[in-house]
Amino acid sequence: MKKVIFIKYIDALYYTEKKLKYNGFKPHVAIGQLILKSNEHITISFTEKNGIAETGLLIPKKALIFQKRKESIINNLDHSKKINSEVGVFWKDIVYFSDSKIPKECTSMYSEGKLFFENHEVIIVKNPETIKIKKKIENHPRIKVYFIAIPKPLITNIEIYDKKI
Fold first, then answer.
1. From residue 93, how far is each of 13, 57, 75 by CA, in Å?
2. How is the chain split into domains, by residue range?
């Protein structure tokens, strides 16, 4: 019998309004059967058909919220960033799967825009262009987004660009 687990996690937030109302990350909750636990991520299934996972989530372990862990979840990514600098942020996204197509790894994402805000838990990018990096590159989401709030634990790298050419 597979183990049923209850997890809390954080995810990136997309803002489609021109005025930002960031109030921190609210935890998401998922309950499902544990399918896979690796060093990088966990995979849980919500529904099964004939013993095969049909739908579920693949979540980077760094996105998980543990009650005793508050400060250690935050990556130390201080690069002396300046507000309004052009930045490129590489990060891992949570993957929802369906049709029994279980992903092997988290989706690598890249968001580029102006640094709007940064603190110990988040980097907010204004007027971001976000793409999924996989076999083929595609924009994500497909609607106009004015801000993206990316949890620091999901960030793998930050680049600051000098627009003076």
1. 11, 11, 16
2. 4-161
